[in-house]
Each structure stands twice: as structure tokens, then as C-alpha cells.
Specification:
This protein has 4 domains: about 1-155, GTPase HflX, N-terminal domain (Rossmann fold, 3-Layer(aba) Sandwich), CATH 3.40.50; about 155-205; about 215-380, P-loop containing nucleotide triphosphate hydrolases (Rossmann fold); about 385-435, no CATH class. Helix content is about 45%, strand content about 20%. It has helices at about 35-50, 75-85, 100-110, 115-130, 130-145, 150-155, 155-160, 165-215, 230-240, 280-285, 290-295, 310-325, 350-355, 370-385, 395-405, 425-430; strands at about 20-30, 55-60, 90-95, 115, 220-225, 255-260, 265-270, 300-305, 335-340, 360, 385-395, 410-415, 420-425. The strands form 3 sheets. The chain has a 6-stranded mixed sheet with strand order 6-7-5-8-9-10, with helices on both faces. Strands 2-1-3-4 form a 4-stranded parallel sheet, with helices on both faces. Helix 1 (about 35-50) packs parallel to helix 4, helix 4 (about 115-130) packs antiparallel against helix 5 and helix 7 (about 155-160) packs antiparallel against helix 8.
Length: about 450
């Protein structure tokens, strides 16, 4: 299939083959943006290293205006071509999104593969997805990404046509190329339809799982945050979950759920979700929506911020932008400032603390701040609970059993054939038992 020609384009080299090399380019419009541009290049370098590509040089590029044909101006392009040739780079990676037409023109100018940030992220996700759902989501995103780039994939036919030595031969080959593009379009349509159907089946299964969790009345917390902020490390430290942890972007993509008992003996579920990243390709937001819906379905979000990172505030803002796109921005949020063990002093005046109040300084590595985190989690659960008086007929003892199992009994008495209860229960259970609530 057409997608098999494109994915993991650099990852299937023979054993012992030299690692592919790259020059990175990121644009900025004014001097104030230069520092941000350089930080973005640092992150792009981490992405490339995670993908398995060695970075030779990072180039901040000042642009007054963008060129519709080649993204950068003619003078800048000539400068970058010389850099790439001097380094003998295999790839040129742009931090900004480039159109299929720009990509074709740039590859013609450079004479090597040109990628943008979105394609690198797609490649990283493809390498690291473990579950069937994640693999399906990534394959769907890749197919959709490649669809408008079909013309680029068949340029070898045009080259053959130019060197065939005969007008008729060239015309024939060009016709074959056009025919192949149409075939590939049909293949891609079929692939998209099949992948979407497969994903719907997986999503139905996940919906059933979420339904079971809701019926269990166990509060659900979702760990969210920028990639490499330390979510998996925090989950492991709290629950001994054994989730894979690595100092790389997107070390783990798959959702992990673990049961945890708080200091007051309250059972909860902790969900580790995929990390967010700035300029997340729209295709990936859509493709991973069912995974990120875990954040939407959770009762409370734990927003993990790497407070040691120089771009901590931008990363925190990116997380909330994605949450807004998912419709989950109104969820209760506990913000934890992770990696305080790497700071020389406490983050008293950090801009993240100013913008996101009631934060909890914490170290997932040393477990400093864990008691304060659990206290805040207990407080948030308590806000969602209600103290009510119930009058339930003994004939409906299954409801009484549910209250005993999922609530805190303050007092219990009997009146003829009814059981009188004063209980501390969740808002969900209180709604379910609304007709049995009495005013005393």
C-alpha cells in the first residue's frame, strides 16, 4: 500500500548503516522572537534525536515575509542550500509547517529530503505507538498527511520521461505516472475508510471501559501535560505502575490506568495520557482524540509542568490550548510544578505560579510534595461529594448496598420498613438517589 512506501523512511536502513543527518531551520519575524525561535529549535532537535536523526546545525532564520513557493526567500534559500551541502546533510527539517508544493520546490533546490515538524512528529509517534489503537490512529494520520503529497511521490516517472530519448516514450511514461496517482488516490480512500472503521470498533471498546469506571463510582484523575514533563515518572512513583520512562519526547504514547489509594483510604484511578506538544499537527489532534478523551472523561485533571524547563509557561499554555480544543478546559485542575529537585531555589516567583495559582511544587523523582498533592486531591474529591439524608425502603436493599459500598455512613437508623441514612456520597450517586433524599 502507498503508506508503506512512506512511513519510517529513515528507520529501515541496513544494520551498521550510518545514522541520517539533518540541518534544522526555524523562522522568526522580529528580534523579540529570536530567543523563542532558538528554544523551538532545541525542541525540534530533541524530536529529531527521538526519531533517530543526528542534528548537524540549527539555523534561526529572520524573515520579513514568507515566500509562497519556497517558504523562505530566494537569498535565504541559497544560503541554506550551501549549509546543507557543506554538512553533506541527508535531510533539511523546517520547524514550521510547509505546504506540499513548498516541500517539492525545496527538495528540488536542496537535492535531499525536506521535512517539516509535523512529519517528524508523525514519524516519532509511528515508532513509539504500542497498542493497536495508537497504531491505527497514527497510520490514519500518516495516510491523511501523505494524500496531498502524492504528486511528489511519483516524480521519478517525470525524471524517467525526461531521459527516455524519445518524445513518445516520455509522453507514455508521464501518462503512466498520472494513472498511478489516480490508483494511489483510490488506495488511500480505501485505507482511510478501513482505518476509520477499525478505530470506531476500538473506541466503542474504550467507551465500554469508561462506562464501567463510571458505574464503579471511583474518582478518576488524568495526568496531563507537555511531553517529557514527568507524567509517567509521577504515575510510577505513586503506584509502582512500571510505565516506560525515558528522557526523550513522547517516550510513551499509550494510555495507562492504575488504581491508587490516597492517604485517607479513598480509592481512585490514575490515568497517564499522551504528552502534548506545541504545533501538534491537526491530524494528530484528530487522530488521538479518543486517547485524549481520557482527559475529557476524567473527574479531575493533574496538570504536570516541568518547572525546570526554560519554556515552562509556554508549555503549560500549550497544554491548555489542546484541552480547549478537546472541550475539557472547564475540568477541575490541580497544577503540579515537577522537577523542583533540579532547581537551585524554590519557584516562588515563577511566571507559571503567577498565571496558574494554587500550584504544588513537587519532585516525582524524590517524592517531595507528594503529601501536599494527596491533600489537594482529597480536597477536590470532597468538593464533588454531598452530605445528604436518605430514606430508602428495605425492599430496595441493592441501593442501600451501593451506598454502603461507595459512600461514608455518618449515621444509620430504621423507621418501619425504611432505612434512614445520613451519608457522604459522590454527586453522581446523589443524582441517582435523588428521589430518596429527604429534608430533616
Amino acid at each position: 500500500m502507498i503508506i508503506e512506501k512512506q512511513k519510517d523512511k529513515f528507520m529501515n536502513e541496513p544494520e551498521g548503516h550510518t545514522k541520517k543527518t539533518a540541518v534544522l531551520v526555524s523562522a522568526y519575524r522580529n528580534q523579540k522572537e529570536l530567543h523563542i525561535c532558538e528554544e523551538h529549535l532545541e525542541e525540534l532537535e530533541l524530536l529529531c534525536e527521538t526519531y533517530g536523526v543526528e542534528v548537524l546545525e540549527k539555523v534561526p532564520c529572520f524573515l520579513r515575509k514568507y515566500d509562497a513557493a519556497t517558504f523562505v526567500t530566494k537569498g535565504k534559500l541559497e544560503e541554506f542550500v550551501e549549509k546543507a551541502k557543506a554538512h553533506e546533510a541527508d535531510i533539511v527539517v523546517f520547524d514550521d509547517e510547509i505546504s506540499p508544493a513548498q516541500q517539492r520546490n525545496l527538495e528540488k533546490a536542496f537535492g535531499v529530503t525536506v521535512m517539516d515538524r509535523a512529519e517528524v512528529i508523525l514519524g516519532v509517534f509511528a515508532q513509539r505507538a504500542q497498542t493497536k489503537e495508537a497504531q491505527l490512529q497514527i497510520e490514519l494520520a500518516q495516510v491523511k498527511y501523505q494524500a496531498p503529497r502524492l504528486k511528489k511521490m511519483w516524480t521519478h516517472l517525470s525524471r524517467q520521461a525526461g531521459t527516455s530519448g524519445g518524445g513518445g516514450g516520455g509522453g507514455y511514461l508521464k501518462g503512466e505516472g498520472e494513472k498511478q496517482i489516480e490508483i494511489d488516490r483510490r488506495i488511500i480512500k480505501r485505507q482511510i475508510t478501513k482505518l476509520q472503521r477499525d478505530l470506531e470498533e476500538v473506541r466503542a471498546h474504550r467507551k465500554t471501559q469508561r462506562g464501567r469506571r463510571k458505574r464503579s463510582e471511583i474518582p478518576v484523575f488524568a495526568l496531563i501535560g507537555y511531553t517529557n514533563a514527568g507524567k509517567s515518572t509521577l504515575l510510577n512513583a505513586l503506584t509502582d505502575a512500571g510505565v516506560f520512562v525515558e528522557d526523550k519526547l513522547f517516550a510513551t504514547l499509550d494510555t495507562t490506568t492504575r488504581k491508587f489509594t490516597l492517604e485517607n483510604n479513598q480509592e481512585i484511578l490514575l490515568i497517564d495520557t499522551v504528552g502534548f506538544i506545541r504545533k501538534l499537527p491537526h491530524l494528530l489532534v484528530a487522530a488521538f482524540k479518543s486517547t485524549l478523551e481520557e482527559a475529557f472523561e476524567a473527574d479531575i485533571l493533574i496538570h504536570v509542568v516541568d518547572i525546570h524547563h526554560p519554556m515552562a509557561l509556554e508549555q503549560a499554555d500549550t497544554t491548555f490550548e489542546v484541552l480547549k480544543e478537546l472541550g475539557a478546559e472547564e475540568k477541575p485542575v490541580i497544577t503540579v510544578l515537577n522537577k523542583i529537585d533540579l532547581l537551585e531555589k524554590a519557584p516562588e516567583f515563577n511566571p507559571v505560579r503567577l498565571k496558574y495559582p494554587k500550584t504544588i511544587p513537587l519532585s516525582a523523582k524524590t517524592k517531595e510534595g507528594f503529601h501536599e498533592l494527596q491533600e489537594r486531591m482529597i480536597e477536590e474529591i470532597q468538593k464533588r461529594r454531598q452530605l445528604v439524608d436518605l430514606k430508602i425502603p428495605q425492599s430496595e436493599y441493592h441501593l442501600i448496598s451501593e451506598v454502603l459500598r461507595n459512600g461514608v455512613i455518618i449515621s444509620q437508623d430504621y423507621e418501619e420498613n425504611d432505612v434512614l441514612l445520613k451519608v457522604d456520597i459522590s454527586g453522581v450517586l446523589a443524582s441517582k438517589l435523588e428521589k430518596y433524599i429527604v429534608e430533616l
